[in-house]
Amino acid sequence: MSTSTPEAPFGYDKNGRALAPYGYKADGTIKRTKGRTGRFGSLRKRGTRWNAQYSAPDGSRKSATFGSKQLADAWLAAERVKIDRGEWKSAAQLEAEREAEANACTLGQWAEEFIARLERAGRTPKTVQTYQSRINAHILPTFADAPLRSITEDDVTDWYTALDRARGNGVSRPVYMTLRAMMNDAVKAKRLTVSPV
User: Fold this and answer.
1) Beta strands 42-46; 61-66: pairing state
2) Which has the closest alpha carbon to 197: 143, 153, 159, 163?
3) Are 103 and 149 spatial neighbours (Cβ–Cβ below 8 Å)?
4) Cα 154 to the chain's mean position, in Å?
5) Which phi-psi region, left, alpha or beta, contains residue 196 (left: φ > 0; alpha: ψ -120 to 50)?
6) Best CA proximity match to 138, nearest among 113, 120, 156, 115
7) CB atoms within 10 A of CB 49
8) At a CB cut-off of 8 Å and minimum separation 6, what does 102 contact?
């Protein structure tokens, strides 16, 4: 007789035990109990929407609103799993991670993401190729390894002045506008708070 391990829809802890949020069995089915269920969080119907709330490990109260009870219940279950696995993070921790990621991004890395964003936005292949050509020929040689947030207005002015002297306004102006578009897009993507261009 072979024994098979049942599938655990909420995953396993570090000791190999199946995880399940309050109100659920390890196989993912809802526990049927009489009286108080020991439910994680709370659900309230507000008009046609459902509000789900729970007390977070940092002591704050977290809430979200959904169009159905099932979605609200699923959100609570997912939040409980994050807490059980030790993966839950406070807003401050998430912001610190985003900040660290943004500080680590170089202009060269942003250039790749910028080109991908242009393609996803539906820009024509010729437009994307023009941007890519300007970036590779005139922007990356100076700024490729510079952290995006370390580039200052003075850096841009010095670069533009040197480019204008070497190549003239016919080249320097469109390249400057490309750098400006890159930096403005970085602000939209929350990689920068203010554009240096």
Assistant:
1) unpaired
2) 153
3) yes
4) 30
5) alpha
6) 156
7) 14
8) 148, 149, 190, 191, 192
Tokens 């100076």, residue located: 142
- pLDDT tens for 97-148 read 877 776 778 999 999 999 999 999 999 999 999 999 999 999 999 999 999 8
Distances (CA, A) of 187 to 34, 140, 148, 177: 54, 19, 11, 15
Cα→Cα distances 145→132, 140, 141, 160, 162, Å? 17, 8, 9, 18, 19
| Beta carbons of 78 and 88 less than 8 angstroms apart | no
User: What is the band of 33 on the pLDDT scale with cuts at 50, 70, 90?
Assistant: very low
Task: Kindly state the percentage of the chain with pLDDT values over 90.
Answer: 52
Q: How many CB atoms sit inside 10 A of residue 82's CB?
A: 13
